[in-house]
Amino acid sequence: MAGRTAGLQLRILRGNRVAQSLIKIIHRLLMASSTCATATEPIRATTNPTTEVRAPRPTYETDTQFPAVDQHLSQHERTAAHNGPGLAETQAPAPMQQERSEDLEKVVTEEQEEPKAKTSAPRMIPLWSWLIFFSIWGALARLGLSALEDYQGAPVFSLVWAQFTGCVIIGFLSQDKTIFLVDDRYTELYTGLTTGFCGSITSFSSWMLGCFAAMANVRPIFDRPNSGYNVMALLAQVIITLSVSMAALRFGATMASLAEYWLAERGWVQVRGARKGRDARNILAIILAIGCWAGAAVLVGLVPKWRGVATFAALFAPLGTLTRFYLARLNPKIKSFPVGTFAANMLGTLILAILFLLQHRTTPGHVGCQVLQGVSDGYCGCLTTVSTFVLELSTLRRRHAWKYGAVSIVCGIIIMVQVVGIDNWTHGLGGGCII
């Protein structure tokens, strides 16, 4: 009897030890998860008690056009940002910030109070080069992703995948403090990735055209019982695109927080902006920009079958991105309403509506049709952006975000209705261009 009792006590003791071990493991996992989610706790060394404790990393709120972080930027980054568009992606608050108190509007106020230094054109060449290079690949990526989802029975409209991809990347880059260090950032490459690639792979004007097509039941035409279904199709375009884009932004920011937690102590490669190596990167940017843009021009002449689907779009894409880049100078004019982004999106939507009408009401010839399609996909697609638009929505105070988002979407749809809708409902869209 005594032996059985001793054995039972031993098993209970072992069970208690296992339970304690499991509790410790769960506690550590919860602590790690909390640190990863907030991205504000210092990362402490656990293997060597004499290792220096790292200072907490500053966090802000989101993307490419807003700074509350001037105090954390290097002098070079301040100069580059203040001489680019009104508020650059390099100064955006991070999406994972829990509070909105340090939001876009406070950032804009600080931007207006600080005098801007002037940068000569030669010093802007590397930045232009990265924008040109990434805008070409952003436009091609958008066309490629749209083509992959453009088939009979697709669960969603094809453009949503490009919007999702661009918002994930910009969310990651805006939250990231590990690969691109805030206080030593290679600004030109960072701006090329955010303004150039993310801004070009997403398209506000194409989204508005999709909204109009759903509402007007054109391209393609569906057999709908009444006009109420057209309204539901329009709402589906708006709600799905906004929901997917906002979720993608948060998903990208979460991935950046995870990367910061797991890679910070593993010596991950960091893209620094120090003088050493900067000149080589700048030369590389110029070579890539010239090579890609010239290559697009050569392919336009040598491969006719690609003109309407890719090469003309690649040729016109950098012009749209550079136009948007400089229109963003208007963003600080109204702190609660990013005028620059709004102007770029509305201008691109207007031009796309006119081009769409020309494609269906005129017959400019085969090459002319390919040029019209290239300007639509390349220039208008890169002039307008959803990634920056969504980032601004997540950064503005909520009442201003609702106002900015509603005005942008309603104005975009009104432009499409005024330019294309009236002509469509009075005369009908003809056969037009065949690419």
Automatic annotation (TrEMBL):
Protein location: Cell membrane
Primary location recorded for the protein, binned into one broad class: membrane
Record's keyword annotation contains Cell membrane: yes
InterPro entries named among the record's database cross-references: FluC
Catalytically driven reaction(s): fluoride(in) = fluoride(out)
Keyword Cell membrane: yes
GO molecular function, one term: fluoride transmembrane transporter activity
Membrane-spanning residues: 127-148, 154-173, 193-215, 235-263, 283-303, 309-327, 339-359, 371-391, 403-422
Membrane topology per record: Multi-pass membrane protein
Sorted UniProt keywords: Cell membrane, Membrane, Transmembrane, Transmembrane helix
One cellular component term from this protein's GO annotations in UniProt: plasma membrane
Disordered as annotated region, ranges: 76-105
Role, per record: Fluoride channel required for the rapid expulsion of cytoplasmic fluoride.
Family statement: Belongs to the fluoride channel Fluc/FEX (TC 1.A.43) family.
Entry-linked PANTHER family: FLUORIDE EXPORT PROTEIN 1-RELATED (PTHR28259:SF1)
Official protein name in the record: Fluoride ion transporter CrcB
Lineage, opening ranks: Eukaryota, Fungi, Dikarya, Ascomycota, Taphrinomycotina
